Amino acid sequence: MNLFTKENKVISIVRESIYLLPVLNRFDIRPGLHDATIQEICIEKNINVDFFLAIINTYAHQHYFPKTKLLSFSPLLIINYLRKTHEYYAQYVVPSIDASLTELLQSSKHEKSDIHLIQSFYSKYIQEFLKHNDVEEKTVFPYIISIFENPALADGRLANKTFEKEHKQIEDKLHDLKNLLLKYMDTDYNENLYNDFLFRLFLFEKDTKDHARIEDVILFPIARALEKNTRI
């Protein structure tokens, strides 16, 4: 496993995988990178280089997850990254998947029952996904920030909160949606539009799993420790 280091050029990240480009964007890193190294860009953008490397390597390598290192970072740093990811999902990914599904279903020459089944399942999944993120944005994240800044505000609300279970349920529904598409989609649809939609779902699934893992294994254990006024 060849991990990125601060001496690597930022452009090497995109060359390694174009799918890491949105992760760069969450750190406000845009094209026009020239030959800058990761350390140079992080200094320029006031980014914690160790946090950046931990995140980018987690997304780049399926079996890499530096739990101990990630647990050492401030929850404010982690929440800022997670919020950028939520914004990316809500403002770009979900609308683009919506449009892709609409185009796919409109490519059918006939009105069929599987259209309504897939539309309904997808709609319910997306509503649950966005609602979950909204709850985190409006209640969970602000609470974690408040107890980090003032431990006296801790009220124990996270102790029995089953975030991991909620994430698993949402992941299972996306898995079921993919199975519906693979098992029951009629050949009447345009195969290129079908491939594009399914490809988007697979990429979305990978990204959201990494996102949930950072919350479940890193942020929420830190937050529960703050509630107890203990150290990880």
Describe this structure as you would to a colleague.
The protein is 71% helix and 0% strand. By secondary structure, the protein is mainly α. The protein folds into two domains: 11-64, no CATH class; 74-227. Helix 6 (75-106) runs antiparallel to helix 7, helix 6 packs antiparallel against helix 9 (191-227) and helix 7 runs antiparallel to helix 8 (163-184). The longest helix is centred in the middle third of the chain and has 37 residues, at 113-149. It starts with 10 loop residues before the first helix and ends in a 5-residue tail after the last helix. The mean pLDDT is 90.
**Major β-sheet, in short?**
none
Shape: globular
Number of domains: 2
Percent range of helical residues: over 70%
Q: Can you give the mean pLDDT?
A: 90
How many beta-strand runs? 0
Radius of gyration, in angstroms, nearest whole number: 20 Å
What is the CA-CA span between the terminal residues?
A: 28 Å
Question: Can you tell me the residue ranges where pLDDT is under 50 for at least 5 consecutive residues?
Answer: none
In N-to-C order, the SSE pattern is HHHHHHHHH
Strand content: under 5%
Query: Helix segment count?
Result: 9
Derived from helix and strand composition plus strand pairing, the structural class reads: mainly alpha
